[in-house]
Write a structure and sequence with these properties.
With 206 residues, this protein is α/β, with parallel strands linked by helices. It has a single domain, classed as Rossmann fold. It has helices at 24-28, 44-52, 65-78, 90-97, 127-136, 150-163, 186-193; strands spanning 34-38, 57-61, 83-86, 103-109, 137-147, 167-168, 199-204. Strands 3-2-1-4-5-7-6 form a 7-stranded mixed beta sheet. The structure holds S-adenosylmethionine.
Amino acid sequence: MPQCARAAEPNEFMPDDYFRRHSGEDIFGNNQPLEIDLGCGDGTFLLKMAQHYPERNFLGIERLLGRVRGVCRGIGKLGLTNAKVLRLESHYTIEWLLARGSVSRLHLLCPDPWPKARHHKRRIVQQPFLESLHNVLTPDGEFLFKTDHPEYFEWVCEEMQAFKKFHRLPWPEDGEEGALFYPKTDFQQHWESQGKTVHRLRYNMG
Ligand SMILES: C[S@@+](CC[C@H](N)C(=O)[O-])C[C@H]1O[C@@H](n2cnc3c(N)ncnc32)[C@H](O)[C@@H]1O
């Protein structure tokens, strides 16, 4: 019996066992490529991606229950069978819950930049996170990151360089050859409406 105080929402992935690793097949019941939206917020990006790519599966990771419920409702309204949400801490999810070599793309979009120096240790992109990320990606897997915060952007570039096992890829602008279908998240729309620039990074394992 799962030891959980509440029932899963429709379209929520609630593991029976939080201490074992799960593949995409465990989560979705099929072998479609698995994409992770880490800190999916209100699900704007997740829902559009799942609609656009029915041949891929999308798992949103989010710790706030209200947001999880909102995204689950959105999935239900659109009738999507290739999207689910997991309510769990981000780093724990990639360190312990996801199977090694199971993730084709991991999206980390507009995470909290923790701007004060004394809070930098809370930033998610650090060496242990990158080791976990490297472990869960498929050999041709990708890591995609966005932030509105120039100093956090530099931080991530430096962490990636120090880690050494990733290779930076071009991320062509919309309309250019090789442009990605990549909807703006709720936070990106918010920052851009305030005149801020959102910076982006794309890596694979070379
Ligand atoms: C700044 S918002 C960005 C949301 C979304 N990616 C976007 O761009 O609109 C960060 C989201 O990540 C969630 N979050 C922050 N830290 C988390 C953690 N350690 N584990 C899981 N979710 C987390 C927050 O609750 C929030 O919804």
